[in-house]
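Final paragraph of the annual report: two paired records, presented back to back.
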Amino acid sequence: MIEDINTSEKLIHSTVKPSTLEELLGQDYKKISRKIEEFISAYISKSSAKGLVIGLSGGLDSSVVLKLGVNALGRSNMLGLVMPSYTTPREDTAHAIDLAKELRIRYHIVDIHPIIQKFEEILPENKEARGNLMARIRMSILYYYAGINGYLVAGTSDKSEVQIGYFSKFGDGAADIMPIADLYKTQVRALAQYLGIPAAIVQKKSSPRLWENHLAEEEIGMDYEIIDQILHLLVDKKIQPKEVIRKLGGTAKHVNKVNYMIEKSLHKRRPAAIVFL
């Protein structure tokens, strides 16, 4: 979820040239998966941890991270937490449980609705603030289970979400290891296909499910095919916005909005500011 950013614009569908997207998607996903799996294995060993705990939403990113974790550590060293709320579609919960069963990992279902209700009894009503609170409640539960099992917490944010700040600070943005944070959403989708993630999950529209009918691309106002191309040029290639507009053949509105989101969310990607005396 985006905090402190106005994203109420109409969804912008992909009309830009395909060459940059083809460059993004034309990766060796076998090599990528192997590198991530080796990193997970080495990091867990170095940290003297016993395994990883991961929140399973039934969505694309968590499913990919789960599969990579199982490949790296084995199913006995992975713990999945399914944490539905009253805004979670039954389909998402079913997808999360089905994948956990398919990969034969341990999993627990923790209904967070009673916890949210307790907060709502004493806090003022605000949809966005409540959504971020839900993400932070889930992360607190993940760290609780990590603590009692000697595990680390696996984050599931991808590069698209990290760069534009589409995550809750100290919520889904908090983790010990971020296996797919250097892959854009479109690349994660391609990696999911390589890994054999069920098609129903791969094709599902991304959503944090922090309120009813919550879809990521609608909240942001652009689809990920556009976002990822712009991010690739602005972040990876270090190209100035005016040149990005010329290269993609899109409008200044698209590029300027993504650039604004990058700058506005900078505080979410940095440690807390310290006054040195």
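The closing record of the year follows.
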Amino acid sequence: MAKFHSLEVASVHHETPEAIVVGFRIPDALRSEFQFIHGQYVTLKLTVNGEELRRSYSICSSPLDIHEIRIAVKRVQDGRASTELVEKLKQGMTLEVMTPMGNFTTALDPTKERHFVAFAAGSGITPILSILKTVLRSEPKSRFTLFYGNTDRDRIIFRKKLDELKTQYTDRLAVHHILSQGKDEDALFNGRITTEKAKQLLGRFVADALHKEFFICGPEQMMVNVSEALESMGVDKKQLHIELFTSPVTSGAKKPPVAVGEGAFKGTAKVKVILDGRETEITVNANGDAVLDVALDAGLDVPFACKGAVCCTCKARVVEGQVEMAMNYALTDEEVADGYVLTCQTHPRSANVTIDYDQH
């Protein structure tokens, strides 16, 4: 199960006026704990004005570079954690960092020849950069195309690094910037990434016959637009990988996987929680708080971060009983079918339920 560890901040680099890149030094004793897969994230725990905050940030470094884990933090409006980090974090300080997690990835094979295609906007570039660097080094026959949306050139996170990678991998990496306040002669590169614009970009730059893997990370509306474009073009759902970095606000995201029918259980359930090899029974009202909140109120140190069904930090497996998730934007269909749930969204639908966090 994922755990927090105190890590020293090895470096803090201001990538843009609103974004920093933070490097953490990983002690030898924790190196195995912090092994990660391209596209994953870590959760930070910090205290701001006496309140504990937890926030998840994607890893921008490649797992092939083992000495340091780097994340990007972009200040968001009214963001207490991001403002605290961007304004006050210094080299040599320590932060509580949870071990890496996340499903925004795909297995790589040096014998394959594929075309990876990514759509990112703003700080959504962070996990894409990790994926991009790892793909180019691990699959020498494959190529990568990135469509990257920002307001203007000054707000492009990792612009210099992307330029360096384009020079290094001239024949295998293509990067196309789409600026909402852009003034390019080609209108295709100006404005936001709409469904129609995504279709045009794909039609012009991704027309080869190679097998493709698609990655989308950014605001929900961009994710919906690109997903609709790919769906209209007949792209298999298994080729599509999506990562939201904020809690969804529209109806276009992934629907709950379980519907409750007439006569569903509505009483009080005995929920057995398995955590670090220990079993604790809690009482959960079917129409009350989610299992995660009840467990926290009972003093259990269960893992969590966003509480918005976006990350999978609170993931656990249901080994007995029936439950329902109110929302799910993080687990795959296969994981749901295998009994995994986001406990921040989970409510009992039978009198007895057993949830195992150790089977993360």
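Residues 272 and 281 are 4 Å apart (CA to CA). This concludes the annual technical report; the extension proposal builds directly on these records.
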